[in-house]
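Next comes this protein:
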Amino acid sequence: MHRDLANLPARIGRAHQRIKEERWSYRTPCRIEACHLPGEPVDFAEAAAGTYEEFHVDTPWGRGWSTSWFRITATVPEGLPSGARRELVIDPGFSDQGPGFQCEGLVWELDGTPIKGVHPENRYVPVPAELRAGDTWTVLLEAASNPAVRRGNECFSDLDTTPDRPLYWFQSADLAVLDEDVFGLDLDIAVLNELQGELPAGHHRKQQILTGLERALDVLDLRAVPATAAAAREVLAPLLAAPAGASEHTVSAVGHAHIDSAWLWPIRETVRKCARTFANVTHLAKEYPDTVFGCSQQVQYAWMRDRYPAIWERIKEAAKAGTWVPISGMWVEPDGNLPGGEAMARHFTYGKRLLADDLGVTVDEVWLPDTFGYSAALPQICRLAEARYFMSQKMSWNKTNVFPHHTFWWEGIDGTRIFTHFPPSDTYNATMAAEEVHRSRNTFKDAGPANRTMMAFGYGDGGGGPTREMIERARRLADLEGSPRVLMESPGSFFEKALAEYPDAPVWVGEMYLEFHRGTYTTHVKTKQGNRRTEHLLFEAELWCATAALLTGYAYPYDEIDDLWRTALLMQFHDILPGSSIRWVHREAHQTFDDLRERLEAVIAGALDALGAHASRA
C-alpha cells in the first residue's frame, strides 16, 4: 500500500480516468452514410427518403442550426462474450460545452420509431439482443448542429448571423460491449471518493474510505482493468454497504429535465429537444423501474402527442407505471410578473385540462424553479386551481436580501397560503454529485424542525434528462454512512411528508422579489406590448362571441379561441415575455403576436357582425 495519502487523490484521479476509458470493449466501427439538409428540419419520412452518401469519421459537418441525418450500420462481430451488453456508442463531435448547449441527436429505427437521444453524457443506444454474429443493424441519427450562442467573435443568435461553416467533427460510431463490472467500479469509486471529499479532515469515515480506495487500487491492474474490476469492487463493497445514521437527513430526488420552451434556441428546436429527452427518459425507466421523472410544462405533452406519437405512447405507459410523474399543471412555466391574472389562471385551466383529458391525472403542486420573481397574487390563483404545494429555487440567486427559508408557507395578498419548498441544492439540474447532496443538508435553513429536502436531478435544455449514472449514484446513496439518504420519489410524495413533518413552518407574506434579471420589465418592449394587446383582444373576443352566441345563436368558435389562448400562453414563457432569449425567438414572437392580433380581430369582427345583423332585424 502507498501510505502517502497526500498523493492518493492524484492516484485516484488517474485510475478513475483509466477506468472510464475501459467502460466499453470490443469496439467495432460502423459504416456511416450522411444526408445533409440545406435548411429547416424535416420529418422522418422525408429524411429517410433522402440521398445518402458515404461518410467517414473525423469529417466536419453541420452549419449552425442545420440538421444532418446519418445512416449508421453496425455489424455484430464474432467472438463477443456470451450475454454481452451490446451498445451502439456515438460521438458526432461532442465538445466540452455542457449537454444541451451543443450538437444533439435522436436515433431512429428504419421503420420510423424513435429509440433514444444521444448527448455528451448519454452516448449509447442499446443493440437488439436477438442479433447474432454477422447480423447487421441500421439506424438513422437525426443530428442537430446546435451552436453555443457565441463562439469568439461569431454570433449564432439568428440564421442571418450564423457563419456558413461546419461546427462539428464526427468522431465515432462503434458497436461496443459495456463491461458492467468496469461501469460499476467507475461509479463505486466516484461515489465514495466524492463522499470522502465532503467529510472533514480526520473524520473516521473519511479515513476508512481513503484506505478502502487505496486497497481497491492496489487490487486493480490498470493494464487489465476489465479482468480486475470485479476484485476491486469486492474491496469497496463493505464501504458501500455501511448504512446511514438513524437521524440522517433525507433528500427526495426527482428526475427532471428543465427544458426552456425557448431561450438560446427557437421553439422549433425545443420540440426536438423534448423528443430526444423524453425518448431517453422512457427508455431509462424501463431499464431502471425505480426512476421517477417529473415533467412540468403541459405544452410539451401536446408537442409529443401531435408530432411524436410513439414517444407519447411511451410517456403514457410510463405514467401508468409511476416512473413518469406529471407535475405543475401549468401550460408553460410562465413569467411570474407580467401576465395578467386571467392569463395566469388560463395556464392552469389549459394545462390541467390536457392532463385530465389525455393522461387521466390531476396534480397538486406548482413547479416554477426558473421564473424571474413571483407575484403576491400567485398563492390565491394556485389554490383556486386546486394546487396544494409550490416549488421554486430561483430566489437563491438573490445576493443582497438573501431569502430566509427553504420550507415555508407563502401567503398572498388575500391571505391565501400555499406550502412552499425551495430545494437547498440551489439547482434544478443536479447530477447526483455528493457536493449537491451534502449542500441539500448543510445549507438547509429550516433544519431542526424539518429534516427532508427535495432535489431535481438531470441534464436540462436538451441535455437528455437523468442518466443511468445518476440513477446508479442514487442507488448507492440511498443508505450510505456519512451521506444524507437519497430517496427517489415524486414531488407529491415529498410534499406530503414535508408538510406532515413541518406543518407550522414560517410564513412569508407578499411578493417574492428576485434581485436578478431586473431588466425583464423593460427589455424587448415590443414583445410586452404584443402580450398585453393579445390579452385585451382575447377578453374582447370571448366577450363578444359569448354575447353573440347568447343573443343570436352564433356558433361560438371554441376550438379557435382555445388555439389562440394556447399560443398566447406559450408566448408568456419565462424566457420569451421577459426578453431573455436570442434574437430568433423574439423575431418569431413579434410575428406570432401580429398573427394573433389579425386572427383575434377577425374573430371579434365576426361576432360583432352577427350582433349587428341581429340588431337590424329587431
User: Anything to note?
Assistant: Residues 583-617 form the longest helix (35 residues).
